[in-house]
Amino acid sequence: MELKKIAIIVAGGTGQRMGSVVPKQFLEIEHKSILTHTIDQFVAAFSDLEIVVVLQEGYLKQGEEILRKSKYKNKISYVAGGETRFQSVKNGLAKVINPSIVFVHDAVRCLLTPALIQRCYQQAFEKGSAIPAVTATDTVRLMKGDAHQLLDRENVMLIQTPQTFRSELLLKAFEQPFQNSFTDEANVVEASGTPVYLVDGEYENIKITRPLDLAIANYILNKRLA
Asked: Which domains are delineated in the chain?
């Protein structure tokens, strides 16, 4: 039996590191906002999916305006974010009422593919969670004060989104008080006593943070659309 599918798209960033006055999720690639590109991939993966877009309160109207003309506008609801990612996701989870598979995704990771989304759904359905990850390709050193040591990069995983869970696990985990270690949903769920499971991510699934990332995303999307 399939479960309901809900994607919480966390779009709380600003344009500070991008050097832009426009929040990076609203910047355009090929005449379409990054936020729209991201949502397109989820709709392509599952036509029956519901979308919750979490935006800073001051940008809610702008986000609604950007997505107002989209063909899937009736699938989207909007929620104001909080001061932390934890609080923003918790606000989005208030929209999850029935047993579901919940995807939590960074709005500025617009290069994910429907195949990744479907892979995350299937594993979360079977195991309770699916955390996309790729093996580090750079040499990695761990700092300890002024000293540092080499780590085996084959054992270092770079974590991505959409971090995907059965709703009962995620809702229970977010009943905990906030901790500074809660930098992503996997940490929150682990802290509640539930193990999380990795799934193969995608190297192109980068987070657009700086101008170089935007240029890379523009190149990849143009190549895909060619």
From this structure: 4-225 (3.90.550.10)
